[in-house]
Amino acid sequence: MKRLSSLTLAVLATSLSLRAEAPRYGVQGLVNIPLGDLKDFVDSKPGPGIGVHGTFDLGDGHMLRPRLDYTIYPEASFATVKQSATALSLGGDYLYFLAGKPEGFYFTAGIAVVRWSFETKDAFSKVTADTTKLGLAAGAGYQWNATVGTEARFVHSRIASGFQADALQAGVTIRF
Known about the structure:
By secondary structure, the chain is mainly beta. It has two helices and nine strands.
């Protein structure tokens, strides 16, 4: 039975690799609008972000996209206290194009490992906290041509039982 499972996986992997086109690579520019607990922490300030990605077209409108993103939430001031946050995310997305080819409207869902850094400082001290958490994302986008696309996603990462780092993310992707 184990041999049959290995053989089945090998055949599946081979057939997918034969159907898949050569990967394309690109960059993305992002704007993250914080929600909930993250919004309170950064005083509603949006966080710009940048990233790199690869796209693997599996055919029939299915695509995989590994990605690496970095987001900085600017320093927020509360009287004498200043707070900021950053997120480094490594993950992958599944994209489904309604047209059956990598153009036009698509839906996306993703999963990532997110390295969060939070900093709080005042005139006398500075406290930093780093943690690595799971991130989930879902959204939709539009691929305008073979190079340029736009996308909107809801991004969720639970930091602690009383703190969720959620955001609405809008981005422009450029593939080479």
